[in-house]
Amino acid sequence: MSILWRVLARHRRAVILAIVLLAAFLLMTAQVRHDRAVVSLVRQAILFTVSPFIKLTAVTVGSVSHVWHNYVDLRDLRQENLRLQREAALLQRRIDQLEEQVLETQRLQGLLAMRDAWRAEFVAARVVGKDATNWFKTILIDRGSRAGMRRNLPVVAPDGLVGRIVEVTPSTAKVQLITDPVSAAGALMQRTRVTGIVIGNLGAGLRVRYLPLLADVVVGDEVVTSGMGGVFPKGIPVGRVITVERKSGALFQEAVLQPKVDLGRLEEVVILMNSEPRQGFETGSRQQP
Amino acid sequence: MKLFVLGLLACASAQAALLGPISVGDVRPDLFLLLLFFLSPRVSPEVATFQGFVIGLCQDALSGGPLGLRAFTYTFLGFVTAWLSHDLYTEKPLAQFWLLLAGAAGAGVLTFALLTFFVGFLPLLPALGVIVPEAVYTAVVGFLLLRLPQVRATLVRAT
Fold first, then answer.
1. Is the Cβ of B5 closer than 8 Å to some Cβ of chain A?
2. Which of A229, B14, B47, B154, by CA, is between 20 and 30 Å from B145?
3. Proportion of chain B above pLDDT 90, given as a percent
4. Cβ contacts (< 8 Å) between B13 and chain A: which residues?
5. How close A21 gets to chain B, by Cα (Å)?
């Protein structure tokens, strides 16, 4: 026994490294084996601790950015035109505020329009953070379990599908975007009603897989959610086909999509609490045979 | 310890909420990795191992990846950085840049290997499209941060 301790003491560094690496390895293994309880607890504890700082930073940056822009607007004006400068600056600020209000109103009108299309309860949320790596595509929103958020709720924007909630803390939730490489959703070609699976593409963009080889798929086709899988309701716009790939010898064809929503510039999103399409998001859609 | 906690909170906030405007083609520098590179030379390899684990765990919690992915990578890198800091320390700007680039690329390759092992979904070419831009951007930002006198003084004291 004492020999073992002596050996361990002599190789203390290597032993500590091995133990910590093993801990990280076991954490990953636990997720692969779908043993999510401990992992979810650790993840939520960290998110709970860090998310207030992220929200505070987002608010502070917004305020500082506003002040900075005002400073930049004002700095070049001459002293003798001070009165005019103040007046112009005031007017400019007013215009900026109004323009910002118009843009916000347009965005909110888009969100409200969804009320007509969906028999759904929904909650609006602001985006307060983005994924901490370049490997995955997630965002952090400012609504959590206190606002009724839970795993797998679909998240949309006025233009279409955004993703689904994957982690929840009392005040925030993490949303996996449809462009995340491990994201998948049932897809339906709006024109021809051919189904496939839309998955995230590492880097950027979307890809529809498992489209029958002889199916009629052309550039410009609109793709919506098929409703299969039970997470996303049917008929939410996903993207437009920009490339069709038919490889020789393959059993299926694939299509590369341009997402409907500009996921890099999301500011507000809507979470569908219990959704069911009334007329569907689809514009000019055919009835399914 | 205080520096570590403050640095970690600052990195978490900045990485999640601040870097959007300076992202190039959706690629952002990895501030957590830079924090690890800057802190590890100050401590023993044992402490750097734990620091790497906690930094990686925090980044994992803030990302969509499996918990433990970056924790594993940064545990290893923290240990190696602390272990080799005396041998690799240099004042030459170009050498500093290449070291940062090598470290960031190493982190990317290790992450790719782990993802392939656990998830098995990643093709190589698109993965390189993530690893290389992230490594270059991280190295550039790290290089610029090293030009700040306070950071330089801290690293000189540490090594």
1. no
2. B47
3. 18
4. 50, 53-54, 56-57
5. 6
Query: What residues in A contact B15, CB-CB < 8 Å?
Result: 132
Check B111 against A135: CB less than 8 A apart: yes
pLDDT tens, position by position, A238-289: 999 999 988 888 889 999 999 988 888 888 898 988 765 444 444 333 333 3
What angle do the packed helices B45-61 and B31-39 form, to 10 degrees?
Answer: 170
User: What CA–CA distance (Å, rounded) separates A52 from A47?
Assistant: 9
- Compute CA distances A255 → A116, A216, A222, A263, whole Å: 31, 11, 11, 19
Find, among A276, A159, A164, A178, the residue nearest to A222 by Cα. Answer: A159
Determine the average pLDDT of the residues in B22-50.
Answer: 86
pLDDT at A281: 44
Q: Which long-range contacts (CB under 8 A, 24 or more apart) does A208-215 make?
A: A208/A241, A208/A254, A208/A255, A208/A257, A209/A252, A209/A254, A210/A252, A211/A252, A211/A253, A211/A254, A211/A255, A212/A252, A212/A253, A213/A246, A213/A250, A213/A251, A213/A252, A213/A253, A215/A189, A215/A253
Query: Are A205 and A241 within 8 A, CB to CB?
Result: no
Query: What is the per-residue pLDDT across B98-119, written as a single tens digit (0 to 9) for each?
Result: 888 999 999 999 999 988 888 7
Chain A contact present for B18, CB below 8 A: yes
CB A43 within 8 A of CB A167: yes
| Structural element, H or E, at residue A84 | helix A82-117
Confirm or reject contact between B125 and chain A (CB < 8 A): no
Q: What φ, ψ does residue A9 adopt, rounded to 5°?
A: -65, -40
| A91 to chain B, closest Cα gap in Å | 27
Is B111 at the interface with chain A, CB within 8 A? Answer: yes
Question: What pTM, to 2 d.p., does this model score?
Answer: 0.68
Find chain B residues with C-beta within 8 A of A58's C-beta. 17
Q: B61 and A46: CB-CB below 8 Å? A: yes
Q: Closest Cα of chain B to A1: distance in Å?
A: 24
**What are B121-159's pLDDT values in tens digits?**
678 888 888 889 989 998 998 888 888 776 666 666 655
B148 touches chain A (CB under 8 A): no
Contact present, A28 and B118 (Cβ < 8 Å): yes
